[in-house]
Sequence to fold (437 residues):
Amino acid sequence: MKEELLKKISSKEIKVGVVGLGYVGLPLAVEKAKAGFKTIGFDVQEEKVRLVNEGHNYIGDVVDSDLADLVRSRMLTATTDFSFIKDVDFIAICVPTPLDAHQQPDISYVRSSTEAISKYLTKGTMVVLESTTYPGTTEELIKPILEEGSGLKCGEDFYLGFSPERVDPGNLIYKTKNTPKVVGAIGKDATEVIAAMYRAVLEGEVYEVSSPAVAEMEKILENTYRNVNIGLVNELTMLCQKLGISMWEVVDAAKTKPYGFQAFYPGPGLGGHCIPLDPYYLSWKAREYGFHTSMIESSMMINDQMPEYCVERASKILNRQMKSMKGSKILVLGVAYKQDIDDYRESPALRVIEILKREEAEVDFYDPWIAEYKYKGEKNQGIKEINSEIIASYDLIMITAAHSNVDYDMIQKNAVAIFDTKNVMKAIENRENIEVL
Ligand SMILES: NC(=O)c1ccc[n+]([C@@H]2O[C@H](COP(=O)([O-])OP(=O)(O)OC[C@H]3O[C@@H](n4cnc5c(N)ncnc54)[C@H](O)[C@@H]3O)[C@@H](O)[C@H]2O)c1
Fold:
């Protein structure tokens, strides 16, 4: 099986299936197809499948014309029909791995997509999970489902591995194509073949590890590293406020050290589908062994309290103007979880708005990337534009995302008061109405 697959990889005869056409899956499908592999995208959302088949792009990191060209040349198609799994030789699973209502891993998407794949899995196929998850998922969950559903044997009839996705939406330098990738599979042959398949597509290094569990853990380490360091910086920000020191200035000074320090900045909390969620996958797994990941728990506690802390600071700013939070008009600027993207999953700004509303402030939001968002089942519509008059009509402008396509000069000149939780106005000289987190 190994030699045959390696041959098919080098002759580009491998047909690729990408399951889940979201932020991770669609860019991956496009890269595979661009590299000359016929690719089928699978999704349960008919709307996404329709858009892809019409050549319409809906993911920021994908170049519109790339998608349109690949669809036109039939290198990329999409379907909701999993029976086409039987036609592919390489399957990448890129479905969501969120948390449930009790902050525990929800692997129902991984399970159901794997079950759907298992019904049509054929001999000589490579299957790779790319969704972020706890160490052990590939061997303990995916392998038995695939073996039972297909009647095939892992390692003999099909290869199985894990290769974490490192997509960083909005990153202008590192995209799917040039970001190094880690691969860990069940058995040496599987690792070699799956790594070869990625090497045939990507420019970045493909780094092999000894098992799927190492690759799964490696991904969680990456995200936990960010989570814990952001927690540290946020905690020190709260202390610096008491000491009358700017944490931003402290971090900028520390990062002049050319080794041993990586800069992380304060903010209103964690956002996105990865950093706030993934460490919970590890703490959940750790509890199976009676082990407590105390660093993760502490940083989660700190980061989770940041929206509340930011509202407290906002309240103090209003207080200095002899205003109460109740009834004050507040404009929250930026609901995306980070700058220059349209993704608001887990965005701390949504919690900030929720708390402001609970305190009976009159809250609007503006985001040049997001016209409306859904939170806890409710739709929220943003204001469509900002100008000097609109800005002047609010008691407080609270900046919660550092979007680059906003006229901050105009805001500074017209706002009564500004609470900048992202230090995005750092270059503005007149600071009389600006307070920074
Ligand atoms: N978005 C990121 O920046 C990022 C970065 C690195 C890793 N990841 C990880 O990658 C995984 C996917 O994340 P994403 O951001 O692409 O999610 P997403 O929600 O954008 O996309 C997931 C897609 O999977 C589809 N889907 C759900 N169930 C399915 C099923 N049973 N069969 C087929 N398709 C199904 C959904 O309809 C959706 O289109 C997650 O585990 C995430 O943690 C995401």
